[in-house]
Design a protein that fits this description.
The chain is α/β, with parallel strands linked by helices. It contains twelve helices and 15 strands. Mean pLDDT is 93; it is low at 1-21.
């Protein structure tokens, strides 16, 4: 090859290398882990959508430090092996943080994989008390089961005067459901009530509830308490109403998605749930979020969509504030408070959050905030 040609090739290669070096920075990767299939898909899909909306809005505003943010989504299937495999894939892809998971069971299954690394998971909806007060790589933007279950117990015992409760709960997500039942029972019985009967089940496509509901109602409760996902809660409510049109029904916040109202139909009317989403909120921030979510996804965000958005915002703010040599966890804890869609989220030194809880009731196909 002639000398000038060789020099030209070297010059071109150097120019290309310089151009690449001066090109756009690689995207900053975040992971999302949630149940996107099966009976809990409504929860996972809404959480993913909320996180996706937050990331898209951040990119539209210029990204993070000039870098585009990329959200990599994985389905945990609400199953131990699949959730661990999904988290491993996200870690291998070099994500800065995990937004998720959406259920306590998956959090308990996957957290050990993060013990020795810098990556944290920031959960939109995990509430088990088993992860409270621990210095680990788990953070959340939601209170624990104690806040929701105890508020529910106080409302039904003190406000409505109900004294006998029977509960049905899903042991497929035992880290959550057993924690919730324990906290409800403790508060209810401290106030003079009594949980007269409990029955466990494991969620599946074959789950049938007529026999179990018959047992619960035979104990003559004033109140039936359902601790399950939205699909199972809807089926249980329908069975309760077939047998008893008067007994009160309460459920845990896990089930309080829009899917529950859709599936339960008329049986949902009058069901009471304590949750962190104020359905009557008319603040500009919430109305703008709701409109943006509806325009992007064609549906209401519900509590899971809002929580997914809030969790993503906490992660993005933490990354923005992170100082050299500081971990993302340290940055989030140092910040302490974050503006959520409806309220300020306070995060303590262990990554546990505190936020207000509201009593809501389903009426004419809608959740209404009572107090």
């Amino acid at each position: 090859m002639p000398r000038m040609s060789v020099l030209a090739c070297w010059g071109l290669a150097a120019l290309m290398a310089l151009s690449a070096a001066c090109g756009p920075a690689p995207p900053l990767r975040l992971g999302f882990l949630g149940g996107l299939s099966g009976r809990v898909a409504d929860l996972g899909v809404a959480g993913r959508n909320g996180a996706m909306l937050a990331v898209e809005q951040k990119n539209a505003a210029g990204g993070l430090g000039g870098r585009t943010v990329e959200l990599i989504v994985r389905d945990d299937g609400q199953e131990s092996e699949q959730s661990r495999r999904a988290l491993t894939e996200l870690l291998e892809l070099g994500v800065e943080a995990i937004i998720g998971p959406m259920t306590s069971r998956v959090a308990m299954d996957t957290l050990p994989l993060l013990e020795k690394g810098p990556v944290v998971m920031v959960s939109p909806t995990v509430t088990t008390t088993l992860l409270t007060g621990r210095d680990d790589n788990f953070l959340r933007v939601i209170s624990t089961t104690y806040q929701y279950a105890s508020k529910s117990a106080r409302y039904h015992r003190q406000k409505l005067g109900q004294a006998r409760a029977a509960a049905i709960y899903d042991v497929g997500n035992a880290a959550y459901s057993e924690s919730w039942l324990h906290d409800f029972r403790q508060s209810f019985e401290e106030l003079g009530g009594r949980v007269v009967l409990t029955r466990a089940f494991r969620s599946s496509n074959e789950a049938a509830f007529l026999e179990t509901v018959t047992e619960l109602l035979a104990a003559r409760p004033d109140l039936v308490v359902i601790i399950s996902n939205a699909v199972d809660a809807a089926l249980i409510c329908q069975q309760v109403r077939k047998l008893d049109g008067a007994v009160a029904i309460a459920m845990s916040e896990w089930a309080s998605t829009e899917r529950f109202v859709e599936l339960a139909g008329a049986a949902a009317d009058g069901v009471v749930v304590a949750q962190f989403l104020d359905r009557n909120n008319t603040s500009r921030r919430y109305l703008d979020f709701e409109a943006a979510y509806r325009a992007r996804f064609g549906q209401e965000p519900g509590f899971a969509g809002l929580a997914g958005y809030d969790a993503a915002q906490v992660v993005l703010k933490g990354l923005e504030l992170r100082q050299p040599g500081q971990s993302l966890k340290q940055a989030i804890i140092a910040q302490k408070t974050f503006q959520g869609v409806q309220q300020v989220i306070s995060v303590d030194q262990n990554g546990d959050a505190d936020r207000a809880t509201f009593i809501t009731m389903v009426k004419d196909g809608r959740y209404l905030t009572l107090e």
